[in-house]
TrEMBL record:
Magnesium is among the record's keywords: yes
Record carries keyword Magnesium: yes
Listed name of the protein: Polyprenyl synthetase family protein
Pfam family, one: polyprenyl_synt
Organism: Streptomyces klenkii
Keywords: Isoprene biosynthesis, Magnesium, Metal-binding, Transferase
């Protein structure tokens, strides 16, 4: 890549980063106000002590962090058409993040994860509150995740927007929610494959994350702005697929090769959970038979030591698996940026630039 092209990519990515920060600040204030309002407009059992606690835990998890990439995608999708905020967009943003909260709660149950976003997962918060009754803790965590999902749909119906728009948005979110559950199922299925193919990993990524994290926000934003999706859905899908694969590769790379002080967690959680991620597959594919046996013995072992993880990282680096994964994630990011650049004849250039820069900024976060 030439110096000029590299500098242009850096500038585009920096602009995307700045816009993301602005969306996060504004949305977090709105999200907090939404939870404040629930006490007055959600009909809950008056004698229940558990229901307010459930809402408190959902609020805590929802407001505790997150980059709000989905919110940014939603607003920038609307900006492809108009520079004003159309009716229904704010409620769509809340719906997207409530559905994300639902997914996080249930993911942490499936993964038996104690920590999420720098604090206790909802499941482990309940486990601490009911140490002698694990069944109640599990049940309450499942129900908390379910409540977040239903709230994400309810907020769309309450939007001050035309009925046809609300119906169209609800169809997008219901479809995304169902497809994400299917993705979670195939995510578990993937780990029964000794060496999952890249095609299978791409499919897991598409259903488990891409469709609700990228494609749904794009569709919702354009719908709110009055755009007919029929003529644009293929280009939206192409962009979402490429950006989604790049982003998942980055996440998997950071899980094994990331710096603990930067990522906030010790490396190797995918290995300890038995996940055959992009990074794990890259090591398995490159390693010798003896080296592969080291990784296979560590997969699914929650007590796998830091020394073993370091050894696996060394095996990966000896074979160039880490560099290969970095190269692949950048290639997908550049392809996503190129796909976005082809949108210029159809939509506003300023918003198109954001979609060009976002995948490139994402892959820069690999240190």
């Amino acid at each position: 890549m030439s110096t000029t092209n590299h500098q242009a990519q850096q500038a585009t990515a920096a602009a995307a980063r700045e816009r993301l920060a602005g969306y996060r600040r504004r949305f977090d204030a709105r999200f907090e106000a939404y939870f404040d309002s629930l006490a007055g407009n959600l009909d809950t059992p008056p004698l229940s002590r558990f229901t307010p606690r459930c809402l408190d835990l959902l609020r805590d998890l929802s407001l505790r962090g997150g980059k709000r990439l989905r919110v940014a995608l939603l607003y920038e999708a609307a900006r492809l058409v108009t520079d004003e905020e159309p009716a229904g967009l704010a409620e769509a943003a809340l719906s997207i993040e409530l559905l994300q909260t639902h997914g996080l709660v249930h993911d942490d149950i499936i993964d038996d994860a104690p920590v999420r976003r720098g604090g206790p997962s909802t499941y482990y918060a309940y486990r601490r509150e009911f140490p002698e009754d694990p069944g109640t803790a599990l049940g309450l965590a499942v129900l908390a995740g379910d409540l977040a999902a239903f709230l994400s749909m309810r907020i769309l119906l309450e939007a001050d927007a035309p009925a046809a728009l609300k119906q169209a948005m609800l169809e997008v979110q219901l479809g995304a929610g169902a497809e994400t559950v299917a993705g979670q199922i195939i995510d578990l299925e993937r780990d029964f494959e000794p060496l999952p193919s890249e095609e299978l990993l791409h499919t897991v990524t598409e259903y488990k994350s891409t469709r609700y994290s990228i494609l749904a926000p794009l569709r919702l934003g354009l719908l709110a702005a009055g755009e007919d999706l029929a003529g644009h859905d293929e280009r939206l899908r192409r962009y979402a697929t490429l950006a989604g694969i790049s982003g998942q590769m980055r996440d998997d790379y950071l899980d094994l090769f990331g710096d603990e002080h930067t990522t906030g967690k010790s490396p190797g959680s995918d290995i300890r959970s038995g996940r055959r991620s992009y990074a794990v597959r890259a090591v398995l594919a490159a390693a010798t038979t003896a080296e592969r046996a080291v990784l296979e013995s560590a997969l699914g072992d929650p007590d796998c030591t830091a020394a073993t993880i370091d050894r696996i990282r060394g095996i990966a680096r000896d074979h160039g698996a880490d560099a290969g994964l970095r190269s692949a994630m950048r290639r997908y990011a550049e392809d996503a940026a190129a796909e976005a650049s082809a949108w210029r004849p159809h939509w506003r250039a300023e918003a198109v630039s954001f979609f060009e820069g976002l995948p490139l900024w994402n892959v820069q976060r690999t240190q």
